[in-house]
């Protein structure tokens, strides 16, 4: 814990808070030092997570992976943009692609991979964007939601949206 405190400068490696710090394991990268809010033990406003935009620039692989995973768990458009903009070293990039986590499959059971193109099989109203993504729309360069096999992300009409895998088929 001493080495972790020294590396982090005695503050949360996400938001910079200095109270209630504990080590959190980020397999397979190692540990990060987080405050109770960033560990998910306290309710925080959605804008609290904007701290991840700065934390994404950390040189520590475990912090980079933890930030990448947390950004993927958030539903705000800025979080998806920040995650897409992250430049990860090859080692960390490899950790994001670990196959053992979850398998994403389309409506026909075909395995989906990062960067695939899918086609919508149903009209989908996009909440908060004021439009409907039409059946037959191709979504190129999808991203896989790391912790949820039922969700992928992609751009439709310039908007980054979350799409349920049951409503797509692989092209």
Please provide a written account of the structure.
The protein has two domains: about 100 residues, no CATH class; about 70 residues, SH3 Domains (SH3 type barrels, Roll), CATH 2.30.30.40. The protein is built from five helices and twelve strands. A three-stranded antiparallel beta sheet has the order 8-5-12, with no helix packed on it. It has a three-stranded antiparallel beta sheet with strand order 9-10-11, with helices on one face. The radius of gyration is 18 Å and the shape is elongated.
Bin the strand percentage. Answer: 15-25%
Kindly, what is the distance between the CA atoms of the first and last residues, rounded to a whole number of angstroms?
48 Å
Strand order across the largest sheet: 8-5-12
Shape: elongated
Spatial extent as radius of gyration? 18 Å
Report low-confidence residues grouped into runs of 5 or more: none
Total helices: the number is 5
Which class do the helix and strand fractions yield?
alpha+beta
DSSP, total strands: 12
- Listing every helix as H and every strand as E from the N terminus to the C terminus, the arrangement reads HEEHHHHEEEEEEEEEE
- The chain-level mean pLDDT equals 88
Domain count, please report it.
Answer: 2
Share in helix: 10-25%
Largest sheet: 3 strands, antiparallel
Domain PhnA protein N-terminal proteobacterial: 3-43
Pfam family, one: YjdM
Organism: Gemmobacter aquatilis
GO molecular function: hydrolase activity
């Amino acid at each position: 814990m001493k080495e972790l405190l020294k590396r982090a400068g005695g503050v949360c490696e996400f938001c910079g808070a200095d109270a209630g710090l504990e080590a959190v394991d980020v397999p397979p990268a190692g540990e990060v030092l987080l405050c109770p809010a960033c560990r998910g033990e306290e309710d925080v406003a959605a804008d609290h997570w904007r701290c991840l935009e700065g934390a994404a620039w950390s040189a520590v692989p475990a912090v980079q992976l933890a930030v990448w995973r947390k950004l993927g768990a958030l539903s705000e458009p800025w979080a998806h943009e920040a995650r897409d903009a992250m430049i990860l070293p090859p080692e960390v990039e490899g950790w994001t692609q670990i196959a053992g986590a979850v398998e994403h499959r389309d409506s026909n059971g075909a395995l989906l991979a990062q960067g695939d193109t899918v086609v919508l099989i149903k009209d989908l109203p996009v909440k908060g964007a004021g439009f409907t993504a039409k059946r037959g729309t191709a979504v190129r360069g999808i991203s896989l939601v790391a912790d949820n096999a039922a969700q992928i992300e992609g751009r439709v009409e310039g908007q980054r949206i979350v799409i349920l895998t049951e409503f797509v088929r692989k092209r």
